[in-house]
Amino acid sequence: MPEISRFFGIVIFIYFREHNPPHFHAVYGETEALIEIKTLGVLTGSLPPRALGLVTEWATMHQNELMKAWEQASNYQTPGKIEPLK
């Protein structure tokens, strides 16, 4: 499960050969949410409101890169890192 970004204590992962729809995992402390890349909606899990807001802000800025990372991981290629939120 490659880590593709890390910011403000939040770690973003995309797993290899994951199920559709295209999504990423956002982990903050003991919480985790799966976020759909296209809609940026939460598929499962939860994050504290502030952490979810930061993840959504970051993902909005990097949607195209997230889709590329999803496609790479779907083909067992290691996705590159994505710039963190600053």
Q: Notable features of this structure?
A:
29% helix; 2 helices; globular; 5 strands; single chain; alpha+beta
Give the gist of this structure:
29% of the residues lie in helices and 29% in strands. By secondary structure, it is an alpha+beta fold.
**How do the strands of the widest beta sheet line up side by side?**
1-2-3-4-5
Oligomer: single chain
Flag low-confidence runs.
none
Spell the H/E element sequence: EEEEEHH
Compute the gyration radius: what is it? 11 Å
Taken from the alpha-carbon principal axes, the silhouette is globular
Domains (count): 1
Mean pLDDT: 95
The amount of helix comes to: 25-40%
Taking the sheet with the most strands, its summary is: 5 strands, antiparallel
Strand content range: 25-35%
Structural class: alpha+beta
The total beta strand count reads 5
Number of helices: 2
**Cα end-to-end separation:** 24 Å
